[in-house]
Design goal:
Helix content of chain A: over 70%
Largest interface: A-B, 26 and 33 residues
Structural class of chain B: alpha/beta
CATH architecture of the largest domain in chain B: 3-Layer(aba) Sandwich
Order of helices and strands of chain A: HHHHHHHHHH
Order of helices and strands of chain B: EEEHEEHEHHHEHEHEEHEHEEHEH
Number of strands of chain B: 14
Oligomer: heterodimer
Distance between the termini of chain A: 16 Å
Strand content of chain A: under 5%
Strand order of the largest sheet of chain B: 6-7-8-3-9-10
Number of helices of chain B: 11
CATH topology of the largest domain in chain B: Rossmann fold
Shape of chain B: elongated
CATH superfamily of the largest domain in chain B: P-loop containing nucleotide triphosphate hydrolases
Number of domains of chain B: 2
Radius of gyration of chain A: 19 Å
CATH class of the largest domain in chain B: Alpha Beta
Low-confidence stretches of chain B: none
Shape of chain A: globular
Low-confidence stretches of chain A: none
Strand content of chain B: 25-35%
Largest sheet of chain B: 6 strands, mixed
Largest sheet of chain A: none
Number of strands of chain A: 0
Number of domains of chain A: 1
Chain lengths: 255, 307
């Protein structure tokens, strides 16, 4: 069975119908978060740092934090929210009584997670632009990175969610996977200045590193050959994970 | 046949949930799948709409192999599940709209159908309030409305009236009859024998994953038992003294302390009980034999409540 795009959109629209009712309350926190981070780290900590990676500390942080917000937006959607739809709302049981197939559910949910990631990331982008940290127009090249980051973390989170038996496991995903990524994937300090030798190669495995590098290159207007590898990593990893996620979804939803 | 299941079995690990089940549902009737909880009704139903794959055997719905073409079959199918699948935060109208989109319905047809269903299931008074504030009966009516949004040729109802009060049950039954009268084939699972008897043209009694009897309810009753049932509380020891010396002993079934006797004419038996039950005026109930009795005679266990 393959994905039917129109059925996948119907799955997406279920989530959109629910989100539409509360979007004001959902969107507002997306603006507070960047302001708080930039105030504390950019302005507070940044006052003690004359420059990092060639820019002010706040300017160094801004592109990384845009990617982190996309990562968080997608991750919440494919972990807690998918679990609620699966277990409590029985949304997928209902869909499977209609012509919708598990593949459509996976496609619709990933599309929705990318949508949420894009909303989060775009809000963050607007905020850092207002702070004067996103030099326009070149920083606009970071906008396509937001859905790419969303896609990658939707794929990773979905595979995790479909394999865990209880909702309690999600806190491990956040504290042992996403938080270390947040702290060590080039967001707060330039990884390539702190690591050497083989560790630089190992670091390339970190998923968050790639969108961050892309976004930072956009903010600085410094394209480089390595960015091709970053885009390839995101697309290939997402494709492989989603391929596996399709099978996991079929196993979880049908018997 | 709208539904044809041919020697279908389903194994979950060590447990055989459905064993060698064969079933045929002709068009335009209301067909009941009866059995206690755990008999395999829900698994059977899930296999019919293609979400559970049989371990062996084959299933055809509308003449199509459900395993080969699930989307095409489910496009003509409505299914009301036992558990609630409603979206709590949305109104009945928005729930119907979301569900209609699963069937790729578009405006203005979608709104037209929603309007019809709101009327048909009498949801108008609360059409715009969030589902979470609605009563159980209201929610069940909406659940049935959802499964009708694609105007299905076959409606599958899993335990449609479990947990509902009698007035709501009666109202739902009359809707099901209207649908059948309009040409929809209905397949329902239930463990309420009265529901099956009032609503179903044919029933299949399922126990431990297999069909143990099938037919028109009245004929099933007539085949297995006499027309009237006399029911009384009576210990096994008393049973011997009361009925041991009857010339033509009637069929007797026991469920705990409750004894049921099946006869064509209850008055003679009642006189016999009065005569031999000296001093004790125990209460006897005389009623028409029903499907519950058939189930008891076939399986030795009762369907509803504890034995």
């Amino acid at each position: 069975m393959s994905v039917s795009p129109r059925h996948a959109v119907a799955v997406w629209r279920r989530n959109a119908a629910m989100y539409r009712r509360t979007w004001m309350w959902n969107i507002l926190p997306n603006f507070f978060e960047p302001v708080l981070y930039l105030a504390s780290l950019g302005i507070g900590v940044g006052a003690y740092i004359s420059e990092m990676g060639g820019t002010s500390y706040a300017a160094f942080l801004a592109p990384g934090l845009v990617c982190v917000s996309a990562m968080n937006g997608a991750s919440f959607e494919v972990t807690y929210n998918i679990y609620v739809r699966l277990t409590f709302e029985k949304a997928y049981d209902a869909m499977l009584t209609t012509p919708i197939e598990p593949d459509d559910i996976v496609a619709g949910e990933v599309l929705w997670a990318v949508t949420r990631a894009s909303i989060y990331g775009a809000c963050f982008f607007v905020a850092v632009t207002l702070f004067g940290l996103a030099p326009l127009p070149q920083a606009l090249w970071a906008l396509p990175v937001i859905p790419l980051a969303g896609l990658l973390f939707a794929a990773i989170g979905l595979c995790f969610s479909l394999r865990v038996p209880t909702i309690d496991m999600f806190s491990f995903y956040f504290t042992l996977f996403l938080t270390p990524l947040f702290l060590f994937a080039d967001v707060f300090f330039p990884l390539n200045e702190r690591l050497s030798g083989v560790w630089l190669w190992v670091a390339e495995a970190l998923p968050l590193l790639h969108p961050v590098r892309l976004a930072r290159a956009a903010f600085r207007g410094t394209p480089a050959p390595v960015l091709v590898w970053d885009v390839a990593y995101i697309l290939v990893a997402s494709w492989l994970l989603l391929h596996w996620g399709r099978r996991a979804a079929r196993a979880r939803l049908t018997s | 046949m709208i539904v044809e299941a041919h020697s279908v079995s389903k194994r979950f690990g060590d447990r055989l949930a459905v064993r060698d089940l064969t079933l045929g549902v002709p068009p335009g009737i209301c067909f009941g799948l009866l059995g206690p909880n755990g008999a395999g009704k829900t698994t059977t139903m899930r296999m019919l709409y293609g979400v559970t794959r049989p371990t062996s055997g084959r299933i055809r719905v509308f003449g199509r192999d459900i395993a080969a073409d699930p989307r095409a079959v489910r496009a003509r199918l409505g299914v009301t599940l036992q558990q609630s699948v409603l979206i709590d935060a949305l109104s009945p109208i928005d729930n119907l709209r979301v569900f209609g989109r699963y069937h790729l319905l578009r405006e203005p047809e979608l709104s037209r159908r929603i309007d019809d269903l709101i009327d048909f299931l009498e949801l108008r008074s609360h059409a715009h309030v969030p589902v979470r504030v609605l009563s159980g009966g209201f929610q069940r009516r909406l659940a049935i409305a959802l499964s009708l949004v694609n105007r299905p040729d076959l409606l599958i109802l899993d335990e449609p009236t479990t947990g509902l009060d009698p007035a709501v049950r009666l109202a739902l039954w009359s809707r099901v009859r209207e649908l059948r009268a309009g040409g929809t084939t209905v397949l329902l699972t239930t463990h309420y024998m009265d529901e099956a008897q009032r609503l179903c043209d044919r029933v299949a009694v399922v126990a431990e994953g297999r069909v143990i009897s099938e037919g028109v309810p009245a004929e099933l009753i007539a085949t297995h038992l006499a027309a009237e049932a006399v029911e009384l509380d009576c210990s096994a020891a008393e049973e011997g003294t009361l009925f041991g010396n009857l010339p033509a002993p009637p069929r007797r079934l026991r469920a705990g302390t409750r004894l049921m006797l099946y006869v064509d004419d209850a008055s003679a038996l009642l006189a016999h009980i009065r005569q031999h039950d000296r001093g004790s005026h125990r209460t006897c109930i005389v009623r028409p034999t029903n499907l519950e009795d058939v189930f008891l005679s076939l399986t030795g266990t009762r369907l509803e409540g504890a034995a």
